[in-house]
Amino acid sequence: MTTERTRNLLVLNGPNLNLLGTREPAVYGTDTLDDVEAAAVGAAESHGWTADCIQSNHEGDLIDAIHGAPGLADAIIINPAAYSHTSVAIRDALSGVGLPVVEVHLSNIHKREEFRHHSFVSAVAEVVICGAGIAGYRMAVDYIAAKLDAAAGSATR
Length: 157
Ligand code: DQA
Known about the structure:
The chain is of the alpha/beta class. The protein has a domain at 1-76: Dehydroquinase, class II (Rossmann fold), CATH 3.40.50.9100. 38% of the residues lie in helices and 17% in strands. Strands 2-1-3-4-5 form a 5-stranded parallel beta sheet, sandwiched between helices. Helix 3 (59-67) runs parallel beside helix 4 (88-97). The radius of gyration is 15 Å and the shape is globular. The structure holds 1,3,4-trihydroxy-5-OXO-cyclohexanecarboxylic acid. 1,3,4-trihydroxy-5-OXO-cyclohexanecarboxylic acid (DQA) binds next to loops.
């Protein structure tokens, strides 16, 4: 008999998101990073999944976390923050590991300054959620869990 591990998500948050709660509350709301991570973990648990959350202000640390995901995580939820708009390296890391990716932004980047309208990550994400605040993380978890649980169910039928 094989024992399957519980399905797990890697939830990555990029630079300056550690300041959530006090950072530009008119744009990002008053939820803290702890609130965001608790929302993602709670949503994962509601599906019988687990979630590992990492926040970093350093591009290389985010890339290392992405490289470490295969075997530990079934999908990646990422708010690359400002690196969305600059980082080919994070985009390449995500496409390199080949796990399903959901990109989340708290704010609606398309309603903001023009330099935020383009994200290098979007081209390698299955789904992009922006402007829903903390709820966007729950939506991302719900999407991934529904999709991968359905795929697993149809594979065993
Ligand atoms: C953000 C949007 C980015 O443009 C910005 O640099 C961030 C946060 C968001 O969640 O709305 O740091 O990713």
